[in-house]
Amino acid sequence: MARITYVEFNGTAHSVEVANGVSLMEGAISNGVPGIDGDCGGNAACATCHVYVDGAWTGKTGTPNEMEDAMLDLADGKRDNSRLACQILASDDLDGLVIEMPETQH
Question: Model's pTM, two decimal places?
């Protein structure tokens, strides 16, 4: 179980528990966190769960694979630390992770 803090573009933070093995997209949706849509259901096919991961955490969250990176190219506001929340699985190692959301998912 990991406590993940999702920070909306306006600075509003939502700190929730996400079970190990559950994607951060699913964790956001099941906990009613606004700003993460997950329109494709977690298949890295829509980029509506675009988030920014602090560089200090990339060793634990990993980096985007080719397919994810291609989808992120279609997202508004892509940065070097952009990820799709559907491609990051919660684990004890991610306890305390803070991710930020872009202004829009579309």
Answer: 0.93
